[in-house]
Amino acid sequence: xxxxxxxxxxxxxxxxxxxxxxxxxxFAGAVKAGETKAAPARLNATVETLxxxxxxxxxxxxxxxxxxxxxxxxxxxxxxxxGITGISHFMEHMMFNGAAKYGPKEFDxxxxxxxxxxxxxxxxxxxxxxxxxxxxxxELCMDxxxxxxxxxxxxxxYVVSEMDVVKEERRMRVDNSVxxxxxxxxxxxxxxxHPYGWPVLGWMSDxxxxxxxxxxxxxxxxxxxxxxxxxxxxxxDTKKALELxxxxxxxxxxxxxxxxxxxxxxxxxxxxxxxxxxAAEMPEVFMGYHIPDVTSNDIYALDVLQYVLSEGExxxxxxxxxxxLGIAVYAGADAEWRLxxxxxxxxxxxxxxxxxxxxxxxxxxxxxxxxxxxxxAAELAKAENQIAANFYRSMQTxxxxxxxxxxxxxxxGDFNEMLKVQDRYRAVTVDDVKRVAGRYLTQKNRNxxxxxxxx
Amino acid sequence: MKKIVLLAMAALLVLAPALALAETGAVKLPSYKEYALxxxxxxxxxxxxEVPLVSLxxxxxxxxxxxxxxxxxxANLTGRLLTKGAAGLTADQIAESIEEVGGAMxxxxxxxxxxxNGDFLAKDMGRALDIMGKIVLSADFxxxxxxxxxxxxxAEIQAAKEQPSAIASREFMRVLGAxxxxxxxxxxxxxxxxxxxxxxxxxxxxxxxxxxxxILAVVGDVDGGAAIGLVKAKFGSWHGEGAKAVVIPxxxxxxxxxxxxxxxxxxxxxxxxxxxxxxxxxxxxxxYFPLLVTNSVLGGGFTSRLMDEIRVTRGLSYxxxxxxxxxxAGGLFGVYTYTKNKTLRETIEVALDQxxxxxxxxxxxxxxxxxxxxxxxxxxxNLERNADLAGWVTDLTYYDLPLTFVETxxxxxxxVTPDDAQRVAQREMWLDDNLILVLTKYEExxxxxxxxxxxxxxxxxxxx
Lengths: 455, 464
What we know:
The complex is a heterodimer. In chain A, helix 4 (138-151) packs parallel to helix 9, helix 10 packs across helix 13 (377-394) and helix 12 crosses helix 16 (430-440). Mean pLDDT of chain A is 90; it is low at 1-40. Chain A has two domains: 10-32 and 41-249, CATH 3.30.830.10; 272-454, CATH 3.30.830.10. In chain A, a hairpin with a 4-residue loop joins strand 4 and strand 5. In chain A, the strands form two sheets. Chain A has a six-stranded mixed β-sheet, with helices on both faces. In chain A, strands 7-11-8-10-9 form a five-stranded mixed β-sheet, with helices on both faces. By secondary structure, chain A is an alpha+beta fold. In chain A, 43% of the residues lie in helices and 18% in strands. By secondary structure, chain B is of the alpha+beta class. Chain B has two domains: 12-235, 2-Layer Sandwich (Cytochrome Bc1 Complex, Chain A, domain 1), CATH 3.30.830.10; 260-393 and 400-462, CATH 3.30.830.10. Chain B contains 17 helices and 14 strands. In chain B, the strands form three sheets. In chain B, strands 1-2-8-3-7-6 form a six-stranded mixed β-sheet, sandwiched between helices. Chain B has a six-stranded mixed β-sheet with strand order 11-12-10-13-9-14, with helices on both faces. In chain B, strand 1 and strand 2 form a beta hairpin. The longest helix of chain B is centred in the first third of the chain and has 18 residues, at 143-160. Chain B is globular. The model of chain B is unreliable at 1-24 (pLDDT under 50). Chains A and B meet through helix 3, strand 4, strand 5, helix 5 and helix 11 of A and helix 1, helix 3, strand 7, helix 5 and helix 11 of B.
């Protein structure tokens, strides 16, 4: 239930991107559908930063009598170090296991008995907790969430049992999953220095050794109000909600701000390859090319390229590998959005009677073609239409809107950036896509993991 | 194309109530209009105006339960081939026509029915209905596409064998369902799919893709009058010649004395999958709400008994749940969890204890109230998206349930008593005569698994 998102896991790739292409639903100022008008510079939300540093963003949406409340923390696996890998994700689990006012098991018990649902996720860059609930229980949710921000118990008994739960999660998602194991292998291959090289779930040997003291220290450093963003979207009154925020969160003391991540991944000097031998029915190939962090303007052209390569059955990878050549069961791509320089992933599940080498050649032919000849104007228009439609799809729920606000806060420090992002997508040209393909998707810059199926 | 979308992107999205919250607190569907075309197609048009999108869902009673013996998976294959050539358009032309405007369309076959799902910007409703009409009324099934799609489905069936959870769930239904048309996986087996031909697919299509029994929902930011006009233009000529009546035989839960332990061996498994359950009642049971609430107590939310005992208290698994899978002619009750090989028996015992307890002891008013509040509090979240609304409309109509089901949902949940719960638990959650299915490294866990019931074992490569 309390999910985490392992690196580049296939089912999440498209969702992750959808969550990032966003413009808001509630603009300040009215424009009728169909009228031309530049998007406004700001969203119609109320923003306040408390004295303890907690940033609060409230956006009313009365379309359904429900609310989604989120706390985002600026912590993920990039903040860890060898010996405690996986601790961010472990802390995500422990946040549901008791604090001063609401003891072990009480968080979910109290929430569910009031008609609410909670979940959370951890990534390389962030950890986010949310509750979805009927409009009348907002105060309770603030009480529950502020309690654990203020006074997380980290009860020794639950530290032990919850770590067992996390190990089962790891066994499910990685050890007994071909795609999970491949993703982990690619991360370890592509990063020599940066923390993105280890899995969000952590190495099993670290999960065996992490102590309660590690968790206490980590909690104090990262799960403080000055390292968090509180977001509420839905059917509430802003003035009253702000009073509740002050009542429950204002007295939580700020902590010394965490140290920034120091390590920078050095430039890759040549292709890196690895094999994974594992029981499997068919070969598989995962590739990763180093790309810049999310603040680079090249991200938008890389996103367009991702759509051209893998969105839908008219995309280049699907048409060539699945349809024309019949090599693959599926083929996809993902341009990662990250705080530190990241990867452009390409993954192919190869048909049992075909080889990883054949599919690699087919992928490289496509990439070479884009680098040499670019994409067509029609492909660019299609990608932009898909990006626009996917944005609206992800904005149909209060949960989706709150998630987007938080994600933009983590990546850009200002959720209003989501408006500018739309302009940046529209500014992408066919030449930009050609240029980023030529610059980043090169042999020297690539990491390739091939799966060797064993009986 | 690009220009039109830019206008939409810059537009303000007017926030309008998608759901009316009546004074009583009842959640209702947005208002809609219902039509019946002369050819028998039922149509629902529902306007929502929060986002400039439209969802289309066409339900056709052509699920895997209508597969002929030996042709398991033909409903799925036929559905997948609809977009691979129609009205003279090639698969590539159809995909391009859908995707160039940012649209999506897919066909999804289940056991009772198949759905054709479209998701488009609202301004493209005409295009969406045009494509949907073409692929449903005039599918071509080019031979090379049939062969290509067969190869793909076979490879996907093989790929599913890499996923322990998927194998366990496929086999659980197969073993419980025995010879019933619900028993086989929707996508069939490598053998059955390999034997399919264009002629067989065409025959299935002619027999089952007919307007009688089909239901179309159009939900979104559209003008209702324009929508029904387009629907009539694109689907009015649909005819039902060659229609074959579908009667799914009743799936009768026969109790055989004693428990069966079905073991799927997987040599590299470090974690064991567990399924425990029995055949049960279908979707139209008068006990729908007692079953919903009772199941939620056992294995619904994060504070359900199974989650609490298996995950929170003992750390045996990351997940534990139970559910009733209810179909037209019968259903299935199942407990779903997994644990490391070493604690396989312990986890099975904890789950069995919980089945025993929910049958033997009445649920307290307090626990029942907590569960009801959880279910009713979250219910509005099931009605936020256009596609969810379209899904409710077609699904309820297929099962002959009124759309007022939605507004009476929460009151009906509230009516369930401890006596109701115990009655349905004793009848639909079996204990001594159920099936336990595990996927495990048998060599490592064999000693733990003694004394649970009659043992049957297969190796993972024998899974069809």
